[in-house]
Design goal:
Elements lengths: L34 H10 L11 H14 L4 E5 L2 H12 L4 E6 L3 H4 L4 H4 L4 E5 L8 H5 L12 E8 L10 H13 L3 E6 L2 H8 L14 E4 L10 E5 L8 H7 L8 H11 L3 H21 L5 E2 L7 E5 L2 H7 L6 E4 L2 E5 L6 H16 L3
Parallel strand pairs: 2-3, 2-4, 4-5, 5-6
Antiparallel strand pairs: 1-7, 6-7, 8-9, 9-11, 10-11
Bound molecules: pyridoxal-5'-phosphate.
Pyridoxal-5'-phosphate binds next to helix 3.
Amino acid sequence: MGETGAVTTLDTTPAPLHDPHHVDFASDNYAGAHPEVLAALAAANGGHQVAYGADAYTERLQQVVRRHFGQQAVAYPVFNGTGANVVGLQAMLPRWGAVICAAQAHINTDENGAPERVAAIKLLPVPTPDGKLTPELVATEARNFGDEHRAQPGVVSITQSTELGTLYTPDEIRALAEQAHGLGMRLHVDGSRLSNAAAALDLPLRAFTTDVGVDVLSLGGTKNGLLFGEAVVVLDAGAATGIEYLRKMDMQLASKMRFVSAQLVALFEGDLWLRSAQRANAMAARLRAGLDAVPGVSVTQATHVNAVFASIPAVAVERLRERWHFYDWTPGVVRLMCAFDTREQDVDAFVAAVTAEVAALR
Ligand SMILES: Cc1ncc(COP(=O)(O)O)c(C=O)c1O
């Protein structure tokens, strides 16, 4: 009660720590979680469920994954993409094994050596013009089998869609799988952005994985609207051993796994995965078209999925950074990424700002 006798109510609502309407272009993991995913999490809450994966949501996830990838597919939910790659690759190789990958592969450039340090795997990176391996490029490292002095190539790992926003066609993946299998190796796919690839190719997920010989897959969720969560999906049981033990050993075994699985179910049971990826890809296409029309700006890579690589004058880049985050990729080139929640107005505002900043340089 105040002195006048009126009841004083204190507003205890915390002030927001960020602008919930601001959309950046740094990465698709700058985005929040999709409302349908949050609703699925809330629905999975309450009551008790068996911990460590013997819960109803993880069982449902197995059904969903079998529907997408075939009856033999088994999913192992994990916390993040690095974890999915490390667990999957480790399960595919003996202690003396090596992985052939593109030099630009996330496992080689952005996982702080986790495949080497955590999984004790030797990476054999191959420079590529566009982030894509070809049988010819793989052949440069697929050699010295039986030589005790050299780590033994056991896996070829590709990223779909790639770190440079490029895409493998199903035939290109099939050729890599046939080559790998012919040499006694296996094919792994880092599918952190597999949904964006499917949306761009207009194909079901299995058409460029199971059906063309992929053995083990890191199935992405975080970049397409989850709070967190990915899954190692084993497509050929003979390609991976001990994954249950390795997931725990690599600290990727969630005790409350129902909350990882519920998110993945929300994404992949219906068409949320596709809708979200289509939206991100469409916004990147809009961004590219906008930047193509700005004199002095050049887009440096084809725009197939949700990434746009552009050369923008350095002074303009600094000014744009006052309002948006985005990464320098190679000297003079920035990467701009769209997410499931990027809106047309976000893209248009960015393009308008680029246009104005570049014009101001004249
Ligand atoms: C191609 C690719 N693979 C894997 C990851 C896994 O990332 P994280 O461990 O941050 O979830 C990323 C994230 O940037 C990525 O771009």
